[in-house]
Amino acid sequence: MNLREKIFAHLKELNFAENYLWTPPQYLNAFLIELNPVEKKNFSQTMQELCDENFFISEGDSQLPSYRLTKKTEELLYK
Fold first, then answer.
1. What residue numbers bound the domain in which 50 lies?
2. With helix as H, strand as E and coil as C, how does 19-62 read?
3. Contact partners, residue 41, CB within 8 Å, separation at least 6
4. Please, which pLDDT band fits residue 19 given cuts at 50, 70 and 90?
5. Structure confidence at residue 66 (pLDDT)
6. The domain spanning residue 19 has which CATH number?
7. pLDDT class for 79, splitting at 50, 70, 90?
8. Are 18 and 69 in contact, with CB atoms under 8 Å apart?
9. Residue 69, SS3?
10. What's 77's DSSP letter?
C-alpha cells in the first residue's frame, strides 16, 4: 500500500467525513508513528499534492497544518 492509500485507509477506518479537521496531534500521534522513515519524510509533500487535488484544505500553521476533508475525500472513502 502506498502512502496515499495508507492516508485514505486511516481516515476511512476512523469514519472521518467532509469538513472533519485532521489536526497535527491526530496525525502525528496516531498515523505517522506507523509509517516507515521514507513515508514520514514524504508525508508533507503527499498531503500538499492531495490538497492540490482538492482532497483536503490545508489550514493553520504552514509547518504543521491541519487538513480539512472535502466532499471529494468523503466520496472517495465511502463510495
1. 3-78
2. CCEECHHHHHHHCHHHCCHHHHHHHHHHHHHHHHCCCEEEECCC
3. none
4. confident
5. 96
6. 1.10.10
7. confident
8. yes
9. strand
10. H
